Structures are given as C-alpha cells and as structure tokens.
Amino acid sequence: MENIIYLDNAATTRVRAEAAEAMRPYFEAEFGNPSSIYELARNAKRAVETARGEVAAALGAQPTEIYFTGGGSESDNWAIKNIAESYPERGKHIITTEFEHHAVLHACQYMETRGYEATYLPVGTNGVVDPAAVEAAIRPDTALITIMLANNEIGTVQPIAEIAEIAKRRGVLLHTDAVQALGHVPINVKRLGADFLTVAAHKIYGPKGVGALYARKGTKLKPFIHGGAQERGRRAGTENVPGIVGFGVAARLVAEELEREAPREFALRERLVDAVLSAVPDSRLNGDRFKRLPGNANFAFKYIEGESILLLLERHGIFASSGSACTSGSLDPSHVLLAIGMPHGEAHGSLRVTIGRYNTEADIDKLVEVLPGIVRRLRDMSPLH
Description:
Blueprint: E1 5-6, H1 17-23, H2 39-59, E2 66-69, H3 72-86, E3 93-97, H4 102-113, E4 117-121, H5 131-137, E5 142-146, H6 160-170, E6 173-177, H7 189-192, E7 196-200, E8 211-215, H8 230-233, H9 241-279, E9 283-285, E10 296-301, H10 306-315, E11 318-319, H11 335-339, H12 344-347, E12 350-354, H13 361-381
Parallel strand pairs: 1-11, 3-4, 3-5, 5-6, 6-7
Antiparallel strand pairs: 2-8, 7-8, 9-10, 10-12
C-alpha cells in the first residue's frame, strides 16, 4: 500500500531490506536442511549459527544460551512450562502480574490446571510493577517469577534488574518477556539478571514466525517440542533457516542503531503527546510518561470507542491500534488498562500509537492534524458525551 502512515509497530514491523535480502538465498540456492551433512546443508547450518551469534550479541548473551523458536508466544510458554519439567522440586507457585501479554497469562492459567498456584500482582496507575510487592508475594514454594520487561500496550518499562536481585536473593527463577523492549531500550542479560528471556523477530524489522528464548548458562531447559535433535536436542523440527537468518540481521542492526534511533523515536513521541494532550479535551496518556518505551504513546479519550477512532484514521491512511494485536477480535476492554485502574467505560476509548524507524515528523503532524476532528465527531455522536 502506498502513502500510508503506519503507527502500529508494536503489533508488527515491516521487514527491513537488509533482512529480506539476507533471507533470499535460503529460499532459493541455499535451501539445504541444516541437519544434513553435505555442503548445501553445512551452508545452512553456518547461517543458523551466525544468526544465533547475532541475536546473542544483541542481548549480551553467549550463543549457546540462545534457542530459536517459532515466536515470542512459544518462547514464553516454553520458559513457564519448563518449570514443571525441569524444576519440580522448587514448588508449585508462580508470580506474575495482571497486565502481562496473554502468552504469559494463559500459560500461567494452564499451569494452574496442572496443580500450580499463580499470584497475579496488581500494578500501579503508572503501569509500573513495585518490586516490594514482588518480594512480598514470594513464598517458600515459589518456583518462578515472570514479569515483562516492557508492556506491549502502554509501553511502560519494568524494574527487572531490581526484581532479579530480589529473585536471586530469595532463590527464585526469573523469566522476562522482552519482545517489545528489544531494539528500543538497552538489553544486557548479564546486567538484567533474568534466567530466561523472550524475544521475537517481527517486532524488530525481521520476519514473522521466528523468535528466541535466552536460557542462562546453568539453568535447566527440557525439550518443549519432541522429535529430532535440532536446537541441541531441546526444540525439535527443521529450522526456519530464512527466518532465523533474517532475525539475526535484524537483531544486529537494531542493536547497532539503538543509540541514535531511540532518541529520535522519543522526540517524535514527545511531539505527539504534547500535541494530543493540548488539542483534545478529556484525553490522557496511559502509563508513566517517561518510564516507557521511546516510541510508545497510549491515549485514552473519554466518551468514545477506540475501534471507531481506528476506522476513521484508516480513511486518512493512518494505521494504529486500540490495544494488543493479539486481542483485536475481542469486544472486551484492554486487560492492561483495567489493571492500571482505568474505569471499564474509559478503557474502551484507547488509542495506541507506536513509532518505528520509518516514521517521520510529517507522520506525527498528519496524525495530530486529523485526530482532534475525529474525536470531536465521535463525541458528537456519543450518548455518553
């Protein structure tokens, strides 16, 4: 589509040219199966291992600590369900929060059907988890803490390093979903302190359908998919070689560009937030203004529905969202906004704008030009206004 303004980069991103070009040979001439032994296969195997090194470097990890998966949701499920398989002696209690991605929430709910108990911590109105609340929730039988590094809807960044210190001191394993954070904030797994960490390619200008799980050296990780000996015997199935190659290139480039791209996205976000809050009455920014990803702005507009805003924005060639792409078919308000204390009615009127590397000041200015009129039009039709 030509002449569109895409502001939904938290849902997915356009595959960058460098990643697409790197992937192309592995669809065509270099199509070998990495598990075979001839040269065509060895070329594919080398490509997978090169990408593993690139993803590891982007996280400050060792290549042997990186396991490729089919995406962020699989990695989240693997980390959480691994507790029962690898650490049955640690107890049957999991700590998470009320505003996690559904891949984490639903995995924890599944674990509850398997005899585990989960504590879902509330979060403050600023969208930031209190480490003291995490520590207070730890019990003698707590096996795992799983808290996201950055929220996928409101973009608030969580104090994972502080939580990791608590977890280590109390002898509890820690998993963090860093899918939204990679490429937007610095990540070094050694300094962060998590035992398991989840990332995905399609949030960083790589292909869909490929992710990775970081498992700290010394942790136990049982196979999640059984079959062949791929991924050092822990994740069976022929590797998605083109996807993995694209993931590696994308991870390397976002890490290299972070120092200049994050401030640029921050400046665009601040331009947007200032303009919207001044031009649209009864509007608010959801979550802490500064403890958030540089390109995330999540607004609430009283008296109207977020879906209606999206439909009218689309008429202007502007694409955004009203919450997580994973729940776009749901009529229920965002569980994230409810978790930070927003009234049920107001939670329906949200707009998530997520800025990426291809967005410009002109994109922001166009959104600011049309959004106030859209909100006025919808409020004029609303029986609540």
